[in-house]
Amino acid sequence: MPTQLSSQRSLVTDDLHKLLDILPEPIYQKIETHPLRDQLVEVVMDLGRLPEARFPNEAVYLGDIPVTKEDLQHCIERVGTFSGDNRAGIERTLHRISAIRNRTGEIIGLTCRIGRAIFGTIAMISELVETGKSILLLGRPGVGKTTALREIARVLADDLHKRVVIIDTSNEIAGDGDIPHPAIGRARRMQVASPELQHQVMIEAVENHMPEVIVIDEIGTELEALAARTIAERGVQLVGTAHGNRLENLIKNPTLSDLVGGIQAVTLGDEEARRRGSQKTVLERKAPPTFDIAVEMMERQRWVVHEDVSDTIDLLLRGRVPALQVRSVDENGDVQITQENPTPEPYSNGQQNGGLSLPARPSGWRASGRMTPLAAPNSMPKKPHDDFEQMLEQSWFGSEPESEKLRNPGPNGEDWPVYVYPYGIGRAQMDQVVQLLDLPIVLTKDLNGADAVLALRSQVKTHSKLRQMAKGRQIPIHGIKSNTIPQISRGLKRILGIDDPQSEATDIRLFAHNGSDDELEALEEARLAVEQIVIPTGQPVELLPRSAKVRKMQHELVEHYRLQSDSFGEEPNRRLRIYPA
User: Region labeled Disordered — which residues (predicted)?
Assistant: First the structure.
């Protein structure tokens, strides 16, 4: 019997009496007299338990007599045949009866879900339906995805006069029986013999019946996702639902990620990774999404709409939170559209919304300077590591002279100079490298104002706080193995994107700064051996015997060419051997 819902301004028809007719008489009488009868969601009957009626906000027992096998058989005889997915229906209605079986296949439980046709329920997205773009509906069970899908099919067929074909796997959209329910209007319905054949029926519908719109409920397998992409690529509008509450669920689901374009790992070049402020291996969308528009049904009258799925997925993969377009229906039945810009939540136990989300600065007494450490008791002397950790924490946001950042374009359009925050590295040595090589780098004590961090790898591994804060500000960390001038030079050049082994190694001044003539001669010997013999001919080379100090400098020089070297022989004839790559 049709009723008018004033809060939704939608016409509802549910044929409730046809479902109640299949129930045993005691259960029927309890529901018939219940004051919330028109809001009934489902009736649950489990063998040996009390029958239960579920409403939107509560569940009540229907009497005090447990369900018997005779009660279950009474219902089974009055419904259609249970298909491979253990679902049955009542002819010419939208009700769904689902069975629970024991290990021998005997039915020991029934879930009788009320099917309602609600006309006017898609007012929130009516203009999106008219665009002809493919629409994907997401939401938790019971939020009304199938009801909205049914109404979209009717509007497209009756109001927009399109050729609509519904792929009805469980007869849930158009009802049980061979004659579809009037709620789908002029749309046509194709039934599916068993759930695993749904993808074949999807392709058959396109090839045989020339639809302009295909409506699919519950896309859940990889084959169905591939069939949906095939249909979309043929120019047919798709309207469907998928398992998952939000778009983030589809990204993490390898089976259904193709619906939003598929996800692949991409390795970036050094320059691009530095420009993005990310790691070299990132996740990216590998194809256009199958569905152009996504609707997250948070509640029955509150939906989140993503009008461009590709933009939303790209933002999520980069760890950003997209702006949300929220649509709701007020008490007068008018649609309200608002934009919500969620702020990233503080970092906790890993990732938030696909990326790290940190506060702009540390908060609390320690960060504000109101808390001072107590002197360690004599019985528990502080360790050197504790002193080092305290010193580093005090240096997170050092005071810099107030001056405006000056930027000049580099040879490839980069912003120079680059502001570098040193972590666990001697500042005097970094100044020395910057001056010797005339690098466009400015050292800063303020992590917020830095473009990159140069740190010892051993310190980065043991101090997760630096990693957390740098990722929160999207500042790349470049690690070096040791606190030596050649290693610092290599790290700074890598930050600038000029990590050229040839140019690094030819600058002998770095490897023997203020060194003797013998040291310079030994380094020049190693450079010529690498550039004139090892690299061009691929042959190993032995150098002249040198002291341990000089051999160490030669090892570092060879390492900058990405080559291997070993020391062999006995003192004082111990010497270096350089191997090709």
Answer: 331-387
Task: Note whether 188 and 206 are within 8 A (CB).
Answer: no
Structure tokens at 407: 């930027």
Q: 112 and 140: one domain? A: no
Return the ∠ at Cα 401 (arms to 410 and 484), rounded to 5°: 60
Report yes or no: 164 and 156 within 8 Å, Cβ to Cβ: yes
- What does pLDDT average to over the chain? 81
Residue 241 near residue 215, CB atoms below 8 Å: no
Beta bridge partners of 110: 45, 99
- Please measure the distance between the N-terminal and C-terminal CA atoms of the chain and give it in whole angstroms: 82
Question: What is the C-alpha to C-alpha distance for residues 417 and 495, in angstroms, rounded to an integer?
Answer: 11
Residue type, 2: P
CA proximity to 447, closest of 361, 528, 525, 532: 361
Strands 415-416 and 408-409: antiparallel
Q: Residue 497 carries which DSSP code?
A: T
Token pair, residue 354, equals: 């696909």
- In tens, the pLDDT along 447-480 reads 888 888 888 888 777 777 778 888 888 888 888 8
Contacts of 346 (CB under 8 A, 6+ apart): 357, 358, 359
Mention every residue, 6+ apart, whose C-beta is less than 8 A from residue 1. Answer: 13, 14, 16, 17
Condensed to tens digits (0 to 9), the pLDDT of residues 508-559 reads 555 555 556 677 788 888 888 888 888 888 889 999 898 888 888 888 888 8
Residue pair 319/114 in contact (Cβ under 8 Å)? The answer is: no
Q: Please name the amino acid found at residue 204.
A: E
Q: Any idea which residue has 């997401």 for tokens? A: 138
Q: Please provide residue 38's backbone torsions phi and psi, each rounded to the nearest 5 degrees.
A: -75, -10
Candidates 41, 15, 6; CA nearest to 183 is 15
Q: For residue 264, what are the β-bridge partners?
A: 284
**Cis before 417 (ω within 30):** yes
pTM above 0.90, yes or no: no
Of 540, 471, 134, 519, the residue nearest 276 (C-alpha): 471
Say if residue 247 is in the same domain as residue 139: yes
Q: In the Cβ-directed half-sphere of 314, how many Cα atoms lie within 13 Å?
A: 8
Q: What is the C-alpha separation between 73 and 398, in angstroms, rounded?
A: 78
Q: Which residue has the tokens 């810099």?
A: 400
Nearest-5° Cα angle at 421, 416 to 423: 150
Specify whether 143 is located in the same domain as 286: yes
d(CA 117, CA 5): 12
Q: Name the residue range of residue 529's domain.
A: 509-579
Nearest CA to 121 among 148, 153, 94? 148
CA dist., res. 53 & res. 112, Å (int)? 10
Asked whether 250 and 259 are in contact (CB, 8 A), the reply is yes
Residue 532 burial (CB count, 10 A)? 11
**Kind and range of the H or E element at 48?**
none
In a domain, 397, yes or no: no
Q: Are 301 and 144 in contact (CB under 8 A)?
A: no
- Tokens 């191997």 map to which residue? 579
Say whether both 273 and 288 belong to one domain: yes
Q: Partners of 360 in the beta sheet? A: none
Instruction: Give the end of a domain, one of 82, 117, 152.
Output: 117
According to the model, what pLDDT value does residue 423 have? 85
Question: Is 237 contained in some domain?
Answer: yes
Q: What are phi and psi of 21, to 5 degrees?
A: -65, -25
